[in-house]
Amino acid sequence: MLHSWEMYQGCYVHIPFCQQKCCYCDFISYQGQSPLVMERYTHALCREIASWQPDLPIAGHSTIYFGGGTPSFLPLPLLERVVMALKERGFWKQPAEATLEANPGTVTRESLAAYRKMGFDRLSLGIQSLDDRELRLMGRIHSAEEAERAFREAREAGFTRISVDLIYGYPTQTIKSLRNSLQRILAWNPDHVSVYGLSVEPGTILADRLKKKVWQLPSEEESGRMYDELMETLPQAGYNRYEISNFAKPGQESIHNRIYWHYEPYMAFGAGACRFNGKKRETNPGRLPLYIEGKNAEPEALSEAIRREELVFMNLRTAEGLDLHEYEVRTGESFLKHYAQALEQCKARGWMVSRNGHVVLTDEGMRFGNRVFEVFVD
């Protein structure tokens, strides 16, 4: 019997189009593209799906995840064409979940009903804030009112699993405005909440405006208070922290994202998409013209050392941590022996504990996750 890490457990599809690119975004996404470019991209995407030959078995309940960009910005006939291509190739069978990312400013009652009809049963809404001034500064195309409408209409369309995203630490944001956004969102009763500390990426509008001192980030102390507010309020409201940045009601955790954190194989299609078979990665060209013309993906062979480190990093992101027995089965070595010094260092700093055959990050360890992970680099 094959282990879960010996089969493709999920499928990611990248839709790189946006009505407007957000100020903080460095993802592979493009605004202002014509309907003809979207048509050509869809044709190339379906061509890739039809021609790709899996080198591992595909789990019967392999998950589906459409990310971007803004998948909900792709015209419905084109989106449906991609869904059908996946189903025809057997990559979309009876998924444990099928998620679509959506911007509240790009959905309607009709489109939400169409997504459900296609088979999507989970919606990930990019809310980010419910302060209209903050939304304008972020470059978001929706208002707080439109976000609430989108959530309500998604429920009416039959989405029983809805996740919302929030950003903290953005210029002009305060603990008061974050608390207001959070309380309003909790009143909607979403099933899942993802919270992301702002990351300033080179080449973004945000980075440029900060460099020119047009904008200023909240102080480190203010951002810390925002973090504490989120970490305290969400569990009190019934949302379990099951990963560094993700909270869910019991049973509403993202099945697809667990594949990444558990370091299991996944398929991926689209511009800039990266697939992983457990031993190597392949990354498609991110530039639209190159992807559309069919340029091959770039392979990246992963050494045993890299795979070992990534297995540790990804699992430690989760609340259950790294399973020591599974680590030994997958790597052929003892975690406690190989990482004895790193483990003791983390325990001494209060970042990590051993519990029921797992090593697990403490709340403090999750707060300083990147510093913890650096300790485990050989």
Summarize the structure.
This protein is α/β, with parallel strands linked by helices and 378 residues long. 42% of the residues lie in helices and 21% in strands. It has a nine-stranded mixed β-sheet, with helices on both faces. The protein has a three-stranded antiparallel β-sheet with strand order 12-13-14, with no helix packed on it.
How many helices in DSSP terms?
A: 16
CATH superfamily of the largest domain: tm_1862 like domain
Q: Uncertain regions: pLDDT < 50 for 5+ in a row?
A: none
Strand coverage percent: 15-25%
Q: The CATH topology of the largest domain is what? A: pyruvate-formate lyase- activating enzyme
Radius of gyration: 21 Å
Average residue-wise pLDDT: 96
| CATH first level of the largest domain | Alpha Beta
Classification by helices and strands: alpha/beta
**Widest beta sheet: strand line-up:** 9-10-8-7-6-5-4-1-11
What's the story with the biggest beta sheet? 9 strands, mixed
Count the domains. 2
Measured as a percent range, the helix fraction is: 40-55%
Q: What does the overall shape look like?
A: globular
CATH architecture of the largest domain: Alpha-Beta Horseshoe
Distance between the termini: 33 Å
What's the total number of strands?
17
Task: Characterise this structure.
The chain is an alpha/beta fold. The chain folds into two domains: 4-261, tm_1862 like domain (pyruvate-formate lyase- activating enzyme), CATH 3.80.30; 304-378, Orthogonal Bundle (Arc Repressor Mutant, subunit A), CATH 1.10.10.920. The protein is built from 16 helices and 17 strands. It has helices at 35-51, 76-88, 109-118, 132-138, 144-156, 175-188, 205-211, 220-236, 255-261, 288-293, 304-316, 324-331, 335-338, 340-348, 363-367, 369-375, and strands spanning 8-15, 17-18, 30-31, 58-68, 98-102, 122-128, 161-168, 192-197, 240-243, 246-248, 266-269, 274-276, 280-283, 298-301, 322-323, 352-355, 358-361. It has a nine-stranded mixed beta sheet with strand order 9-10-8-7-6-5-4-1-11, with helices on both faces. A three-stranded antiparallel beta sheet has the order 12-13-14, with no helix packed on it. A hairpin with a 3-residue loop joins β12 and β13. α6 packs parallel to α8 (220-236). The protein starts with 7 loop residues before the first strand and ends with a helix.
